[in-house]
Amino acid sequence: MKTQIVAILAIIAVITALTTVSALSNEEGYKLSPCDAIDISLENATVTDFLNATNMTTVQVYNFKGYKGENTWMVQWYSQNRSLDVCVNVATGDIVGIEEKTGLSPTPTPTPTPTPTAETKTWHSVITFTDRDREISEPFTIKGDVWRINYTVNPVKGRTDHSIFSVHVYQENETIVSVSSWQCSFESCNGTEYINEGNADYHIEVIASSNSWKLEIEDYY
Fold it and tell me: Within 13 A of 137's CA, how many CA atoms are on the CB side?
């Protein structure tokens, strides 16, 4: 474990190559740097036990303003199919949340079978986002009870090992962490994420590096 941590900390000297940092500003007056957030998370027994058990070797740090209303650094330790998100309050240095994820390749959800009615429901295109858009999408409205996101991710040629792609879906004006999230890193991905929650406004946050991507939002009503 010590050898592993030393290797990780050596990477931090060039963290801009491995780290996506969103919405940074000197006006925020952060007391903690990304490196401080990594050091603090490494002092947590839950985190070190996780790293020991899963042989995590890759770290990503970015500013995350939506964790239960707190402004935090999120330190994400991950491998190809597991990750650990550690949220560290930028003002106090307290670890305010730890979330472990496994089986990050999304499991397709069966397409809902429409119930025969006078007017049969169909899929309607809502909006499309690509890597040329902002990392945090504009809000969009879902009318139905079920909707889906068709996604495509293609690593930059020769940089597959650096390709990082993760998605968080939020209900607009709510403080919950997310209503859906998934990742696709180190490979090309094509798939569909179904969300069984609707009748509200939503926005999407994308963390991506060394790839091109597209998200197509479709509503079922």
Answer: 26
